[in-house]
Write a structure and sequence with these properties.
- By secondary structure, the chain is mainly β.
- About 0% of the residues lie in helices and about 55% in strands.
- It has one domain.
Length: about 80
C-alpha cells in the first residue's frame, strides 16, 4: 500500500458487509494507521449516502485488536 492507492477498509474483523472506500493520503508507521480521503461507506451491504466526512483513519493490517491474517482489514483496490 502506498500514497494514492484506492483502498477498502473493513469496519469489523471477519465481516465484509461494512467498510469504507478511500484514497490513501498518508501512512503512519509510528501510529500504525493510514489516513484516507473518504469516497464512500457501505453498511450492511448498502451504500450509506447519509454518512459524510472528508477523511477517515484506519489501523494498518495486524495493528488492531482481533485482527487475523486470513482477513486483512485493508485491501488495495487500485
Amino acid at each position: 500500500m502506498k500514497r494514492g492507492d484506492l483502498i477498502k477498509s473493513f469496519d469489523f474483523t471477519g465481516i465484509d458487509s461494512c467498510y469504507m472506500i478511500g484514497r490513501v493520503v498518508s501512512i503512519s508507521d509510528m501510529d500504525q494507521t493510514v489516513r484516507c480521503e473518504f469516497m464512500s461507506r457501505v453498511f450492511d451491504n448498502k451504500v450509506d449516502k447519509k454518512f459524510k466526512t472528508d477523511f477517515f483513519v484506519a489501523p494498518l493490517n495486524g495493528a488492531s485488536f482481533l485482527d487475523r491474517p486470513e482477513f486483512p482489514r485493508l485491501v488495495v483496490l487500485g
